[in-house]
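Session log. Operator J.P. requested a structure for one protein chain; no other inputs attached. Running the standard single-chain path with token output.
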Amino acid sequence: MIGITGGIASGKSTVAKRLRELGAVVLDADLYSKESILPHTAGWEKVREHFPTVIKEDGSIDRHLLGEIVFADAEKRKVLEEIIHPEVL
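Structure written below.
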């Protein structure tokens, strides 16, 4: 098992793509995180409960706004992590 971590634009996706090409099974936590809060999932319901202002008219989550909220407040970031992490696992 190999874990790929790094900051934005550090090449994680490129490495994962190459590993897939070589036949490796790649589990993408970023993708799972996004899927965990798709409209009307259990994660989405919890996000709506704790961060109602980020729900757009079409039911999707304004990820940019959610990011602004949680990266400006460590407690709110912890709340979001407590929603998403169990869903991803």
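Operator note: The two ends are 16 Å apart (CA to CA).
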